[in-house]
Design goal:
- The chain is of the alpha+beta class.
- It has helices at 2-22, 64-77, 84-109; strands at residues 42-56, 111-120, 125-131, 142-148, 153-157.
- The protein has a 5-stranded antiparallel β-sheet.
Length: 158
């Protein structure tokens, strides 16, 4: 009974750590950070040439999913057998839990995005990738291109 309560508590902690580690700032066109507020930005206008759905991946995993999965898997595996079997179960459970946790972290941190190809009124054509959501775009639509020259970031908005 005590062992199952410990396992449940560890699973809850691991789940919370995994979700917290997967949280990342939004990269959508309609979301700004507080450090971007009240900064001058360059604005151009243009026309959407093409839209393509893509996925944003985290540049580098935090390892929280792997670690949390390994802990839960190791504890769960320790409930198998006794003596050497229990040790082997713990090790195999930790390895399997780490792999599952790593995949979970990656799938939770991937987000849908759009690659928006724009031709500016000045005749320059380029593509911007930004997180999907909040605004919809279609070919032929007039848009604003907002660039922060200090950070080198660009976003497309309506």
């Amino acid at each position: 009974m005590v062992r199952s309560k410990t396992l449940a508590a560890l699973a809850l902690v691991a789940g919370a750590l995994t979700l917290a580690g997967c949280a990342a700032p939004s990269r959508s066109g309609h979301t700004y950070t507080s450090s971007e507020a009240r900064r001058p930005m360059e604005v151009q206008t243009g026309v959407v040439q093409a839209i393509r759905e893509v996925r944003l991946e985290r540049d580098q995993q935090t390892g929280v999913g792997t670690g949390a999965g390994a802990i839960v898997g190791g504890v769960a595996g320790s409930n198998i057998g006794s003596g050497r079997g229990q040790i082997i179960g713990s090790v195999l459970g930790a390895v399997a839990g780490g792999v599952v946790g790593s995949h979970a972290e990656q799938s939770l941190s991937n987000r849908p995005a759009l690659e928006i190809t724009v031709r500016t009124d000045a005749g320059r054509t380029f593509a911007v990738v930004q997180e999907a959501g909040g605004e919809t775009f279609s070919p032929g639509q007039r848009v604003r291109i907002v660039t922060d020259p200090a950070r080198g970031t660009t976003r497309v908005s309506q």
